[in-house]
């Protein structure tokens, strides 16, 4: 996996810190450090889907843990890059690129992405991730029997 994150966590935005600690320390530690207990994470679309397991809204650490567990079960990440990142007292924004191999279909899923987080008390209170949903859906949808 290509990792384009900085090594000095003191200079990272909260989004960079979240992704860095997810990789280094695991989900629970990362949420404890960077995410408010009542935070809401939106997995690309707010509405749940029977076909796209990451779609939906996830409230609180236990549901957000389930969201990240679902991501890990769906994708084998080959590249995850953070290209730009910005933060002030109320929001954090990051953009980048990823390349996943979809575990269900063995298809590649490549996309540029953006993440917008609202902050409260120095932690993430809302997280919304944007990516190429057409490519996501194509990568997770099995081909029909011909």
Question: Would you mind describing this structure in some detail?
Answer:
It is a single chain. The protein is of the alpha/beta class and 146 residues long. The chain has one domain (2-140): Nuclear Transport Factor 2, Chain: A (Roll), CATH 3.10.450. It is 29% helix and 40% strand. It has four helices and seven strands, in the order βααββαββββα. It has helices at 14-25, 27-34, 60-74, 133-140, and strands at residues 2-3, 35-42, 57-59, 75-87, 91-102, 108-120, 123-130. The protein has a seven-stranded mixed sheet. The N and C termini lie far apart (35 Å). Mean pLDDT is 92; it is low at 1-7. GO terms for molecular function: isomerase activity. Residues 30-126 form the SnoaL-like domain. It comes from Cohaesibacter gelatinilyticus. Keywords: Isomerase. This is Ketosteroid isomerase-related protein.
